[in-house]
Amino acid sequence: MIRPLAELVAERRLASYEAVRPQVDACMASLAAVGVRAVTVGSYARGPSSFGDGSDVDILVLDAGELTECEVYARIVETIHPTPVDLMFATELGQKKTANMISLSRPYHLNHL
To answer: What CATH number has the domain bearing residue 61?
Structure first.
């Protein structure tokens, strides 16, 4: 049986998303446990239809709490490795860009605010 390419791509994207989901959830819980407020943004936050084999997970740190940027990064890498990550800090982006990025996230990814 020949299947449409769009169906195959959708299945592959879902598989990629589901493969990293436990790591992302563990990462976000780990950050929240030490007082770091962060959200996922970008293709992961948009869901399986946007997340593919070559995608990375974009994490926006809203408040690092008592941790340094290096400590936040180390904690993220511990829980999400080997998934590639782009890490951004709201303090470096400014309020307007931060607000825009948050508005493009799904509500599920805002549960640590």
So the answer is: 3.30.460.10
Cα distance between residue 95 and residue 10, in whole Å: 34
The 10s digit of each residue's pLDDT in 53-79 is: 788 899 999 999 999 999 999 999 999
Question: By residue range, what is the domain housing residue 36?
Answer: 5-110
Q: Could you give the number of structural domains in the chain?
A: 1
CA 14 – CA 52 distance, rounded (Å): 8
Q: What is the mean pLDDT of the chain?
A: 84
Please state, in angstroms and rounded to a whole number, the distance separating the CA atoms of residues 34 and 54. Answer: 30
CA distances from 100 to 1, 25, 65, 95, 97 (A): 44, 23, 22, 8, 5
